[in-house]
Amino acid sequence: MVRMDLFRSEEMSKVQLIMPAESAHDTITYLAEIGHLMFKDLNPQKSPFQRTYANKTKRCADMARKLNFFQDQLVKAQLVPAVRPLTDADEIDFEELEVMVDNLEVELLEINNNSQKLQQTVNELNELAQVLQKTGSFFSSAWYETEVRRQSGVMSRSSIHGEDRNLPLLLEQEMQTDPSKHGNLGFITGAVSRSKFVTFERIIFRATRGNMFLKSDAIEQPIIDPATGDKIEKTVFIVFFAGDWSRIKITKICDAFGANRYHFPEDAREQRQMISEVRTRLVELQTTLNVGMDHRDNVLTSIGYNLDHWIVMVQREKAVYHTLNMLSVDVTHKCLVAEGWCPVTAKPKIQDALHRAAFDCNAQVNTIFQVLQTKESPPTFHEVNKFTSAFQEIVSAYGVARYQEVNPGCFTIVTFPFLFAVMFGDWAHGIVMMVASFYLICNEKKFESKKLGDIMEMVFGGRYVILLMSFFSIYTGLIYNEFLSVPFSFWTSAYQCRDPTCSDAHSAGLIKWSYNPYPFGVDPVWHGSRSELPFLNSMKMKMSILMGMTQMNLGVILSWWNAKFFHNKLDIWYQFVPQLLFLNALFGYLSILILIKWCQGSKADLYHVIIYMFLSPGSDLGEDQLFWAIVAVPWMLFPKPFKLQNLHLQKVQGRVYGVLGGSDTDSIDLEHEHDEDENFDLSEVLVHQMIHTIEFVLGAVSNTASYLRLWALSLAHSQLSSVFYDRILLLSFSYSNPLIRGMGLFTFACATVMVLLIMETLSAFLHALRLHWVEFQNKFYTGDGYMFNPLSIQTLVHAG
Amino acid sequence: MYGFEALYFNVDGGYLEAIVRGYRAGLLTAADYNNLCQCESLDDVKMHLAATDYGPYLANEPSPLHTTTIVEKCTQKLVDDYNHMLTQATEPLSTFLEYISYGHMIDNVVLIVTGTLHERDVHELLEKCHPLGMFDSIATLAVAQNLRELYRLVLVDTPLAPYFSECITSEDLDDMNIEIMRNTLYKAYLEDFYRFCQKLGGATATIMCDLLAFEADRRAVDITINSIGTELTRDDRRKLYSNFGLLYPYGHEELAVCDDFDQVRGTMDKYPPYQSIFAKLSFGESQMLDKAFYEEEVKRLCQAFEQQFHYAVFFAYIRLREQETRNLMWISECVAQNQKSRIHDGIVLIF
């Protein structure tokens, strides 16, 4: 028999590796390279720092931190690391790398320290320059306005009322005229962050009891704060006050607010001199700083060449040590014992890797590789490729399959896109989707290496799902004869008008003239006719029921497949058979009626048949079916729990005498089994079975009804597209104005893409997902397994 | 609105309640503490914390670590959580959350004022302040010379202003004054918070009032014990007790006249919930009282999570995180100073 990879998960076996301590590291590295072994944590009770290789993992974490630091620096310096292909010269071992990384970090930190001091001075000078400039302008404008006022001769009371702003000039006037007050008046200039400015002003006002005057001006562009190095918006202020007491207070407040105070010379000449001094110093410092920056950039670029490679290397080391920590150490510290799972088929590969590892590190003793017998449930491993992985992902998102149970992922590959397409039947939309997915698939290599956004990544991951969805959409679209709701007639219709002018096509209806039906899909003549909806609805509803019945029956049959595989006769006779009977007696019967009606063209009312089958069980309408359905319910409910109880009793009775003779280890094993079996509680099992039965019986009805969403969504899709076509495109094209036509076309295109292609795809996707997860998988899928998660370098690199 | 929280609570508070319960799940468990207690060095502590919610906060700290770094990062986590919740909160939850931070504000004010009194550097003091209780003009507190100035200059802008009405005097600041100020402020704050919670009604009121009453009673006991042997008069002491709680009013009368620890114990033994706390202590021993009270508080805070649709979970979470930070500080100190034998003395297990 051909091995079906996806139908059941790979056969796994539990293995034990006993490796000499000196070659353990290399062995694990080799195993990680082939990536077929999932290690089990043998010391779960030990906390991370108590484990054997805690020091090594700590060193790895520290190196990762340093490499992170390099990366941050690269980003900060806005350098794009030029990745150079690896040469042999770049191959270094871990210890060398550690030393190198250490040295580089020290060097970088030193450079940063030096430049930081310089940078701080530069920032201070920058701020000072701003302060000088702004304050200078305060003084000059004040001076200018005094002049103006003096000339115009209004320098009396009105100025006190209206123009408080010019008070400093008054002060200044007084200062110059009255030497006795000169000592008391002072001012402080500086810059404070703009967000704090209002509080700052208020506090100064309060602290001096209003005996101060403050003038401020915002610096236009944000400048770098010398203390923190952040870019913030700042305001330059100058505050005048009287008295030494106020000076102390204001100085304290300035300090509290982190406002930098600067000395500001009163004399205009000195001011100019100071400004020019500051400028020259700035230029000088900038050159020094630039030299330092260049040096740093050089160091960083040389780091950038190999940074990615180093990061991968550190990650790998970390993973290896992490794995080593999971191994248990022999008492003699001479060998390590590992336990884990591997696929049976991968055993030769693992053995090969072990041999190579032993050979390469000249170990005296080979690693011992042996299979363990265990009762533990093995992990689930489906061998997927890039095509099947997305489909398997859909199933695994619901729950990972139990070991070796039937994997619905295998069927999902076809049924998922198909059910999607039933809801999304439009071959124009299908073609657009196909083009999009082809674009993604053709540029696969390019996209794979790139970091994509969240949504884009999802779309890219599902590219093969989208491809199949688009194929099926084109197919169903052709069957529905939907092309943006434009009717296409490839063949001659089976219907025609009563009279040759065809004026009554929409009022009196058409007559059928040919006995040959339309060869493929829906006859386009239905489009736009009065009976279009009733016809399509009836067809799509019945079709949905048929598809639902097929899929649910498949689900029930798969449960038989599972039961047979696990040799569970009880499940076959007391679960599978009555379930199949129940489902088909009610809805299988309905499906057959639908098929007969379609084949014969009968006009029987199926509602009537089904409803009266329940309402008057005595009549001749399908009484046999109802009988079997009613019989199936207790059949599902009662026998299984009692059979289980019987089995349990037999086991317990049989064992009582068996245990006595066993050796110690045997009895421990048996006790373990006892624990599992002893907990048999009939009432609990009965309740459990009752829940299952009720779920199935009610589910049969509600799940069948649930498949009607296929019809509903397909109806919505075709109605929406016809609305957009009729109400936007045709309406705008009824005008001759090209502008209106263009706008109409644009709106139509937008609506089609946004609503029909994106939103409808999402909703159809979700509904198809639900039909699979709930209606299909609840018939057979346990989904309580756990994923096979081997130590593998490839996945590590991808995740990083 | 009484009752019916289940009907409308989730409209505004549902998201945040989910968030805070998620945060709570990140608190360290007894197993974590067990492992932490076995650490040999601070690096081990870091390694263990890397697997918890603190991981991202400590990941980029270079070794060797210091206790202060660990505590700082843990506080940072608390502050980030708090700010996240505060930005998402709507009224009245946002006010509720702000109330939680006022306690730290009072502590910070006291810290700065005491610090300046002893002529410490303001920036050094600022680093010691709890980040939850920071406000813009906090550094300016150093300027003030007496309480009146303190109020007029700085605190009038802060939410603490209304609590100040009782302690505006022109006396110069000294240690005694400051301590009285702290307790008066705390009293006013607790009473205000209590009223606010009562106004909120429903489960919030029931649970929060209970928690706050415990807090008030604890403070009353603390004040009593700390003021024994000082020059604080009985009347003044009486004034510092909050006017609610289990001890109010008769217990307060008795506490006000206590002269030694055993009299306090005698008073407290009349109140069954506190009797169990004092029963753990031997006679004349007051050092372990703090820990006993913390344990009781943690127990009560954990119980707040048993009920749904109320705000006390936010209060409880913040308090529990603070307790956790205290625990971690104790553990790291013990590990750093090689006092592993005393490591279990200071830890209050949360779960």
Automatic annotation (TrEMBL), chain A:
It is found in: Membrane. It is a multi-pass membrane protein. Keywords: Coiled coil, Hydrogen ion transport, Ion transport, Membrane, Transmembrane, Transmembrane helix, Transport. The keyword Phosphoprotein does not apply. The chain crosses the membrane at residues 418-441, 462-480, 573-596, 745-769. It comes from the Eukaryota. The keyword Nucleotide-binding does not apply. This is V-type proton ATPase subunit a. Pfam families: V_ATPase_I (PF01496). Belongs to the V-ATPase 116 kDa subunit family. Residues 94-135 form a coiled coil. Essential component of the vacuolar proton pump (V-ATPase), a multimeric enzyme that catalyzes the translocation of protons across the membranes. Required for assembly and activity of the V-ATPase. It comes from Sphagnum jensenii. InterPro entries: V-ATPase_116kDa_su (IPR002490), V-type_ATPase_116kDa_su_euka (IPR026028).
TrEMBL record, chain B:
Keywords: Hydrogen ion transport, Ion transport, Transport. SUPFAM superfamilies: V-type ATP synthase subunit C. The keyword Kinase does not apply. It comes from the Eukaryota. InterPro entries: ATPase_csu/dsu_sf, ATPase_V0-cplx_csu/dsu, ATPase_V0-cplx_dsu, V-type_ATPase_csu/dsu, V-type_ATPase_csu/dsu_dom_3. The keyword Transport applies. Gene3D superfamilies: ATP synthase (C/AC39) subunit, domain 3, V-type ATP synthase subunit C domain. Belongs to the V-ATPase V0D/AC39 subunit family. Subunit of the V0 complex of vacuolar(H+)-ATPase (V-ATPase), a multisubunit enzyme composed of a peripheral complex (V1) that hydrolyzes ATP and a membrane integral complex (V0) that translocates protons. V-ATPase is responsible for acidifying and maintaining the pH of intracellular compartments and in some cell types, is targeted to the plasma membrane, where it is responsible for acidifying the extracellular environment. PANTHER family: VACUOLAR ATP SYNTHASE SUBUNIT AC39. V-ATPase is a heteromultimeric enzyme made up of two complexes: the ATP-hydrolytic V1 complex and the proton translocation V0 complex. This is V-type proton ATPase subunit.
